[in-house]
């Protein structure tokens, strides 16, 4: 359970924003979505390789010019 201490004179919007950020950092939703369906290790690895190739194309070629 996440606990957010509301500071003096802090608006509820600000506290909600801090809560959302803290919740995002815990990775709870990502974990739940990953558990909803089983993904074979070979499929997971293929996806990682494709993502690495995409990043290399996007970010790796800027230094060669």
TrEMBL record:
Keywords: Ribonucleoprotein, Ribosomal protein. GO terms for molecular function: structural constituent of ribosome. Pfam families: Ribosomal_S21. The keyword Ribonucleoprotein applies. The keyword Ribosomal protein applies. GO terms for biological process: translation. This is Small ribosomal subunit protein bS21. The gene is rpsU.
């Amino acid at each position: 359970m996440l606990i957010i201490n509301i500071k003096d004179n802090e608006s509820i919007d600000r506290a909600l924003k801090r809560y959302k950020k803290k919740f995002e950092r815990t990775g709870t939703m990502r974990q739940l979505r990953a558990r909803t369906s089983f993904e074979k290790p070979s499929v997971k690895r293929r996806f990682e390789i494709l993502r690495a190739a995409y990043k290399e194309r996007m970010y790796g070629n800027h230094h060669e010019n």
